[in-house]
Amino acid sequence: MREASTRLADTLSARGVTRRDFLKYCGAVAGALGLAESAAPQIASALEKAAALKPVVWLEAGSCSGCTESVAQADSPDIATIVLDILSVNYSETLMAGAGYSAEEAKAETVKAGGYILIYEGAVMTGWDGDALVIAGKKGTDDLKEVAENAEAILAIGSCAVDGGFVSQYPNPAGATGVQSFLNSVGVKKTVINLPTCPVNPEWVVAVVVEYLLLGRAPEMVQRTQSDGTVLNFPKAIFGQTVHDNCPRRGHFENGEFVSQFGSKEEAMSYCLYKMGCKGPQTYTNCPVVRWNRRASWCIESGAPCIGCGGLDWVDNNAPFLKRMSDMQLKGALGLGNVQPGSVAAAVGGVAAAALVAHGLGMKAAGRVGDGPPMEEMKAYDRKRGTKKGGDQ
Ligand code: SF4
Ligand code: SF4
Are the C-beta atoms of residues 120 and 173 closer than 8 Å to each other? Predict the structure, then answer.
């Protein structure tokens, strides 16, 4: 069997990627991990050995396949794609060429051998006793339990796998939920590494896999609590700071220079998008640092407010996306209900939250921002039209 490093070198060269480009990419991965760029050669070496070290089982459940698409970037594969290609992805419903019995056999053999990384995309569909999602005649919930029990590491990629994402939004008839919440409920004691956003940023997937291969353990984590009380773990280097902390428009925020209308002069001058609904202050991701699409740009740089897809319960909490909230939507992040700014400061007691609240109140007092849309009224209307959570339509 050929060496994994030769396989990677061949694949890179066949796709026109030079060794220099590859090392540059490894430097960017180091950045995403919060390491110095001088760690690039170590990262390159870990990637070269990756195929020999760990197989990957990639399960997909209730989702739009956007995370697979994000990682595969089928139209123009880049180095991240090649790196993920080179990992021994022994099973992936969406990407693998094999199908039917041979595909299921490949998965069964990998699970039996153990020592693999489980990458899980999409929400866990618990509705109708697990019949909401059946793959190869098996309930998706049984499949996840079995594959997770024997996995060496579990990555939940994309918001749906983290806490149910958009699939779990009210009224959630199919009982969609996140991987950690589901595993806790069936007594599988494993810590899931959560990588939210909708879809996931492929560079984070590579960065976490690389760190796992380099150090043989999960990265340093921060914890946040889902609305059902589940404590979730997130890599600190990626999800330890808010979008707002690193946003290039932050100076305009501090100066009270806001866009109030798309197409305006203020928009052309790249003023702060807070009044247009930006959820950067309450969303913990390093999107401004790692960026998207091969580091070409990212949401706010391309002129769109952050809609908070890296947060918890993000659709219920943040919609309508392009309106500023009249209350702080911190349900998922802090394990609280939707609360008014003053009570957030009192309940959390955190310097950052209090400062943000004070800042928001100050801006309101100065007449810089209005009350926002009638969120509670709109949500009450939606609730009245919906059906019971987890029930039949
Ligand atoms: S509110 Fe949004 S656009 Fe404004 S500085 Fe914060 S993250 Fe950037
Ligand atoms: S900047 Fe905000 S909306 Fe854009 S990907 Fe990051 S968390 Fe999601």
Answer: no
